Amino acid sequence: MVKKTMIVSVGGGKGGTGKSFISINIASALAMKGHKVLLVDADVESPIDHMLLSIRREKILDVFGFEPVIVPTLCTGCGKCVEMCPAHALVGKKGDIPTLISELCEGCAICMYVCDVKAIEEGKRRLGAIYRGSNGELDLIQGEVNAGVKQHIYVILYTLREASKVFGHYDFVIIDSAPGTGAGVWLTLREANLVIAVTEPTPLGARDLEIFLNLASKLNKDVVVVLNKSGLPGGRREQIVRISEKFSAKLFNVYYSYDALRTYIDSVPIVRMLPKSKVALSIFRIADHIEKLYNSR
Prior knowledge:
- The chain folds into two domains: 221 residues, P-loop containing nucleotide triphosphate hydrolases (Rossmann fold, 3-Layer(aba) Sandwich), CATH 3.40.50.300; 47 residues, 2-Layer Sandwich (Alpha-Beta Plaits).
- Helix content is 35%, strand content 25%.
């Protein structure tokens, strides 16, 4: 029997709001309730979920992308590829064979298509890798881009593609997405049954939350807002409440506590390490809400 998998994408406008903390704890809470859970770490520029869960990961796939290879014997030095490169990864004056600055290349292949003499061939560059692991409670699939590589979108795409092969084996798939509202985040939102927007009680957190909720609304996604670090001294909770009401999004509070820092240090989810703590109980309430939505489908 095929499971009715529910895909939950966890995102947020700015970095540092605790998106990965919320992701791994919701995934763990659902697993503790007896569900089969897959956590997908699609924050490929800062993949830390395996560390937060004490998972020893193994590489399952290398990800490669396009990189131009210039054939010197064919190149006329016309400079068209240099002129058309949107990332300015090809440099050189007319009459010279262009030089590639690999770290700037975005893999768009425009240079290859505009070269009239076919002096640019398709090469490949290792962009990153995809890993998997398990802690015996939940499974993890994780992407990681190589340092200095700008084509992180391809690593996100391949991570989601690899993970989607096994979605049907799980009750819940929790996707920990990158911060922001770029194309990589859009990829993680498009297949989601529910979007969790993680924010913090600061003016910047409020501003980025509104931008993120605008994106989710354009994709017609059901959204809940998680106010992490609620009760932070000097926090601006009222701004988060106002924005959540504007988008008719249910708001959950995850309270500010040094208990969360302790679990980071020990690499154990707070719902597992301190299940009776105020923070853990607030996360269990989110898991209960997700479970209720799952059972009503």
